[in-house]
């Protein structure tokens, strides 16, 4: 019978294999490891007996404790909904000013409104509500339809150029595409309009007069004789530095030539009244913060 070789330093048996002077030991697995494995197996068996574990053809083993995580989640969601319903009902019944006067409600609104905005509005207006080309900024005071609580709430309800029967409607004519103005006239009126907001026009006095005439005949009915716009029509002010699509020459030429027709969904069927009121309060606060920053 062969005698097993032992390592002189550790006393452990070797496998008999050696590589470049390195001997492979046949060290036993520590008892603590075997104990751990045994405990985990026992725990698994106990868990299988007590808790839902094994899928069957049409059901699963329910376990002796009868625990159901789906039911637990549904119960917790129902409890959260009930707790939320108490203050949400109050928000729906009060005006924005009354909500602002209630510190408890405002704590809920302050936590909930940013999430509502992020989920429903940020895709177009940006996470900071600063807008972008074709999407208005909500942190300034250039609101096409008005920025008071009542107007914001109504705009959220019916949308702009939306399928809602009471939707706000605003569309700028395509003066070039539809042949209402030729290219030379468009160039002239674009330069004139840019001059109204302090952007250099480079027009001669005669061309400025022609631009003013073209504007009066084609644009003033919506934007006003003073080009200050009309919130009743959703027509923007052309004398400030707030431009939804851009104020450079090429963009403005495109605007006059092909027209513009913005769109915003109506949220009446998508968001309950309480959510729309919370968004109104949140948007008003963003607008005020933007005005103070300026």
TrEMBL record:
Residues annotated for heme c 2 binding in this entry: 172, 219, 222-223
Indicate the principal place this protein occupies in or around the cell. membrane
GO CC annotations? plasma membrane
Q: Which GO terms describe its molecular function?
A: electron transfer activity; heme binding; metal ion binding; oxidoreductase activity
Q: What does the record's cofactor remark say about binding?
A: Binds 2 heme C groups per subunit.
Q: Sorted alphabetically, which Pfam families does this protein's record hold?
A: Cytochrom_C, Cytochrome_CBB3, FixP_N
InterPro entries for this protein: CcoP_N (IPR032858), CcoP_N_sf (IPR038414), Cyt_c-like_dom (IPR009056), Cyt_c-like_dom_sf (IPR036909), Cyt_c_oxidase_cbb3_su3 (IPR004678), Cytochrome_c_Oxidase_Subunit (IPR050597)
Q: Where are the transmembrane segments?
A: 33-57
The answer to whether keyword Plastid applies is no
Q: Which residue ranges does the record assign to the Cytochrome c domain?
A: 108-197, 206-287
Q: Which domain of life is it from?
A: Bacteria
Example GO biological process: proton transmembrane transport
Q: Which SUPFAM superfamilies match?
A: Cytochrome c
Q: What are the names of the required cofactors?
A: heme c
Q: Where in the cell is it found?
A: Cell inner membrane
Query: Pathway membership of this protein?
Result: Energy metabolism; oxidative phosphorylation
Quaternary structure note: Component of the cbb3-type cytochrome c oxidase.
Q: What family is this?
A: Belongs to the CcoP / FixP family.
Which PANTHER family does the entry link to? CBB3-TYPE CYTOCHROME C OXIDASE SUBUNIT FIXP (PTHR33751:SF1)
Function noted in UniProt: C-type cytochrome. Part of the cbb3-type cytochrome c oxidase complex.
Name of this chain's protein: Cbb3-type cytochrome c oxidase subunit
* Source organism of the structure: Pseudooceanicola nanhaiensis
State which gene encodes it.
fixP3
């Amino acid at each position: 019978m062969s005698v097993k070789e032992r390592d002189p330093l550790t006393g452990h048996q070797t496998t008999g294999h050696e590589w470049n002077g390195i001997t492979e030991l046949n060290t036993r697995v520590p008892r603590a490891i075997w104990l751990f494995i045994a405990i985990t197996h026992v725990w698994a068996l106990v868990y299988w007996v007590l808790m839902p574990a094994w899928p069957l053809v049409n059901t699963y083993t329910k376990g002796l404790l009868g625990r159901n995580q789906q039911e637990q989640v549904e119960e917790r969601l129902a409890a959260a909904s009930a707790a939320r319903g108490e203050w949400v009902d109050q928000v729906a019944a009060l005006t924005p000013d009354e909500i602002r006067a209630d510190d408890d409600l405002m704590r809920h609104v302050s936590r909930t409104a940013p999430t509502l905005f992020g989920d429903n509005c940020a895709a177009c207006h940006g996470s900071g509500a600063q807008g972008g080309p074709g999407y208005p900024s909500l942190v300034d005071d250039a609101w096409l339809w008005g920025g008071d609580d009542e107007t914001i709430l109504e705009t959220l309800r019916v949308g702009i150029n939306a399928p809602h029967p009471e939707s706000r409607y605003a569309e700028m004519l395509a003066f070039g595409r539809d042949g209402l103005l030729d290219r030379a006239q468009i160039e002239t009126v674009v330069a004139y309009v840019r001059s109204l907001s302090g952007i250099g026009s480079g027009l001669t006095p005669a061309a400025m007069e022609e631009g003013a005439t073209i504007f009066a005949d084609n644009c003033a009915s919506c934007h006003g004789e003073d080009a200050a716009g009309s919130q009743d029509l959703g027509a923007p002010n052309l004398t400030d530095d707030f431009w939804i699509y851009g104020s450079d020459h090429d963009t403005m030429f495109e605007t006059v030539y092909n027209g513009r027709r913005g769109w915003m969904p109506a949220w009446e069927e998508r968001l309950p009244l309480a959510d729309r009121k919370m968004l109104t309060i949140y948007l008003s606060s963003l607008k005020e913060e933007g005005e103070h920053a300026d």
